[in-house]
Structures are given as structure tokens and as C-alpha cells.
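EI: anyone free to look at a 261-residue chain?
SC: sure, send it
EI:
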Amino acid sequence: MRVSGDTLTFLGTGDAMGVPRVYCDCEVCTEARNTGVNRRLRSSVMVECGEASFMIDCGPDWRFMMERLGKRKMRDMLITHAHFDHIGGLPEWSDACRWLGEKGRLYAPADVLEQIVRQYPWLPRQMEMTAVDDGITLGGWEISCWKVNHGKNGYSYAYRLQKGEYTWVYNSDSINLSPAEKEPLKGLDLLVLGTSFVHETAIFESRSVYDMKEAAQLLSEVNPRQTIYTHMSHDVDVRKELPLPERVSVAMTGMTVDLSK
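SC: here you go
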């Protein structure tokens, strides 16, 4: 069964600092400032399903993403976790909702909503907040979530989305998943997976996201039909050959993927 017309667009593909990093003059950051092939906003995606659309995560680059898209409003937003690079744009979204006179609809696990309100206590005035712990449906997609290990940074959530015979997962921030955390990654048509480095040399206890070498091992276990890496730091130079297994590619800003068999 084809999921007619549904698409996934990568609005941002960078890690928490984005690329270029303000303080850095490395080869990748320098290129990102000039030709811009490696320029990456904080990770976020948009799902379009006919006339409906929703985004996953709302980092501090949200306003720029909306301007680039030419969109004036976004009603529905899923959040993976309450780190700044994933929620830093919520105050601007709230302000846009206020001026448009339409409440936004914010979806996240209950504990994430609590963390968001602690940081931005005025948001509920402009947003309807819905806990997704028991699952929700957006644009015809049946969506479930589960907690995933985020290493030194605690935990995040991954989202599994299914419509008809097509199933995909968005998992931007995770590392060293347990067998139980890997289980929902099996049987996928598409896995969007965060890989901040090609090979990260920092001590493991200080890390929070898979690198590409570790991701390859994970993929050999869960075997998705297609994988796209996102949440990439300035360690990743897309101009060079990367250690990508078969059926794996890297996300580029503005890249659109057909969500169908």
C-alpha cells in the first residue's frame, strides 16, 4: 500500500552546536561559511501529508527554517526531549501563534512537557500541550514513542510512525541502546538516526550520540530497508567519502524523502 504524497523534509541536520561552530576555523566550518555544503542547522524535520503537516523538534533555528520554507504557520509540533537544540525555538513559535490568533499544538511525553513548561512557563497560554505516552495520530500517521539512552546527557525519546504498510523511526539523539530500546527499530522501511561524528575519540562516558562506526553495528542488528544519518557535527565532511553501509545516506538541508514503499 502506497502512502500517497507523504514526504519527509530535513530542515536541519546538525548537532547541538550547528555547523559552522562560532569559535571554530576547522576545514569543515570554514567551508560551511563559504560554499556552505556542510552548513547545518540544528536537527529538525517536517512531515507533509496532503494538506496537513507537522514538525519534529523546534530548535533555535526554527524561524530561519520557516522563512526558508516560505511558511507562515505551523500548528503541530512533536518534541523528542527538552534540550535547547530541540526546544530553543518554542518561544518564537509561541509568539507566532499569538500573532496569528491560533494556538499551536505541542506533543511530547509527559515528562518532557513538564521540563518545557519549567523552562518556558508562559507557553501554555499559546499552546495546547498533549502527552503522547500512549500514542497519537497526526496526519494519518500512528505515532508511538519510547525512551532511549542519550549517554552523558540522560535520555531522549524516539518516535515510531506507521501509516498503511510504511513504518519509519526518527531517533536523533541516542547511544549504546539496550536490547529493549533496539526492539522498535526492527522491521523499518526508514530509520533516521543521529550520528554526530564519523569516529568520536572522546572517552565513552562523556559522549551522548552514536558515531557512524557504531551506527553501522546497530544497523547490522536492526536491518532497516533505508537509513539516513542526521544530527552531524563539524567532524562530518559530506564532500568526502564516508563509511556508509549499503542503503545508508546522510541528510542534507532541504532534502525530501518519499514516505512510501
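EI: The longest strand covers residues 141-149.
SC: 👍
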